[in-house]
Amino acid sequence: MAEEFIVTPWEVKGRVDYEKLISIFGTQPITRDLLRKIEDLAGELHVLLRRGVFFSHRDLDLTLRDYEDGKGFFLYTGRGPSGPMHIGHLIPFIFTRWLQDKFNVNVYIMITDDEKYLDEPNMSLGEARRWAYENTLDIIAVGFNPDKTFIFHDTEYIGKLYPMAIKVAKKINFNTVKAVFGFTGSTNIGLLFFPSLQIIPTFFEKKRCLIPAAIDQDPYWRIQRDIAESLGYYKTTAIHSKFMPPLTGLDGKMSSSKPETAIFLHDDPKTVRFKIMKYAFSGGQPTVELHRKLGGNPDIDVSFQWLKIYFEPDDSKLKKIEEDYRSGRMLTGELKEYLIEKINNFLEEHRVRREQAKELINLYKYDGELARRMWREGPWNIEELNS
Ligand code: TYM
Fold first, then answer.
1. What is the distance between the alpha carbons of residues 85 and 29, in angstroms, rounded to a whole number?
2. Closest ligand 1 atom number to CA of residue 81
3. Is residue 72 located within the same domain as residue 218?
4. What Rg do the C-alpha atoms of the chain give, in angstroms?
């Protein structure tokens, strides 16, 4: 019998059955035809698409049609700065950057320091804002086009957002957010209002918006799709990823609040080695002899799954590892060593780009072409906003 699982913007529990989630959430699977279409338009398929990490969508076909028709589209994604980022958090950003490269479109990145202040009982506003800055460096390190990317922190940009926020808020009642997010009578009123903010960037342009994010964020997009047309905008489209699984096994998601489940972007090579050696759930046999005889199970082995999700993009190398591990030629220790090297190389390059980001941050927040326009003119035509 399938295990129970929970997926909400606040928690992911149990072994997620992604096919079932598609039917529970009412989204659409990414079909072979859709993959072929993306490949035709982009010239290649990103590894996260090839490996099925991005597995579900809402109206992605319409967005691609708009692109083909010359109407264009724009991208929106975000981060709630609750603390340091782990490698799972980077997945949607890496993919968003790829889409920006391939389709040459604007990207809006919302950093919800307000949300995290409201949501985390022990976080001061100063801490939330400091994490907003730190996380922004990690996001810039991914390499977005500075003239077509606007990164904004809610508590700074709220003046421009607020008029639209109240228009959105007026369309959403308490019963809806209660049903969608599980809010109760003791939820603080900041959090009750917050969904109207997370929806707003989907209205930054009069084009279709495409949101790459893990599927936990989808409940926001469901509400957006209910109200967008009544405000004169398109229903947003979305492309959903699975979760980077925790080191400790395939249940739930990699989570900052459980450090043994995650590799953080700041983890040094020794820490990465220690965590993977100690915690990475293995599909291997208890002894070398048994492993050589019976082989390992890559389907439940977290090290193998991480290689498959992102860290070994070469399909033929991945296939060889899978065969060697299954047959017992490759031992768990060897598989872990391989992953450790891949992750440490990735993190080393990331940290170099993160240092450079300190010089670039103003470009993304204030001075780049798109950022300047968003501060000077704002996202909306005043007459339309007032109507
Ligand atoms: P946050 O900070 O929880 O997550 C940031 C992004 O990372 C995704 N994510 C993961 N992806 C793969 N594996 C994981 N283990 C994993 N954990 C988290 C999330 O789906 C998200 O895409 N409220 C939002 C901030 C936000 C936002 C947005 C996110 C504002 N606007 C638009 C996405 C799109 C939040 O707290 O995300």
1. 28
2. 2
3. yes
4. 21
CA atoms 280, 283, 286, 288: torsion sign? negative
Query: Ligand 1 pocket: which of 12, 13, 89 to mutate (most atoms <8 Å of CB)?
Result: 89
Q: From ligand 1's centre to the CA of 382, what distance in Å? A: 31
Nearest to 285 by CA among 273, 297, 302, 300: 297
Domain that holds residue 323: 259-351
Measured in Å, residue 327 CA sits from the centre of ligand 1 at 37
Residue 314 located in a structural domain: yes
Same domain, 206 and 268: no
The answer on 225 and 91 residing in a single domain is yes
66 shares its domain with 201: yes
* The two structure tokens encoding residue 211: 């949101």
165 and 30 in a common domain: yes
Whether 198 lines ligand 1, by a CB cut-off of 6 Å, is yes
User: How far is ligand 1, taken at its centre, from the CA of residue 27, in Å?
Assistant: 18
Q: Which two tokens mark 325?
A: 């591990």
Question: What's the longest Cα–Cα distance across the chain?
Answer: 75
Does any domain span residue 186?
yes
Residue 359, in any domain of the structure = no
Residues 219, 316: one domain?
no
Question: What pLDDT tens digit does each residue of the chain (387 aa) get?
Answer: 455 899 999 889 999 999 999 999 999 999 999 999 999 999 999 999 999 999 999 999 999 999 999 999 999 999 999 999 999 999 999 999 999 999 999 999 999 999 999 999 999 999 999 999 999 999 999 999 999 999 999 999 999 999 999 999 999 999 999 999 999 999 999 999 999 999 999 999 999 999 999 999 999 999 999 999 999 999 999 999 999 999 999 899 998 888 889 999 999 999 999 999 999 999 999 999 999 999 999 999 999 999 999 999 999 999 999 999 999 999 999 999 999 999 999 999 999 999 999 999 999 999 999 999 999 999 998 888 998
Q: Is residue 61 part of a domain?
A: yes
Q: How many angstroms separate the first and last alpha carbons of the chain?
A: 54
**From CA 275, how far away is CA 86, in angstroms rounded?**
13
**Residue minimizing CA distance to atom 21 of ligand 1:** 213
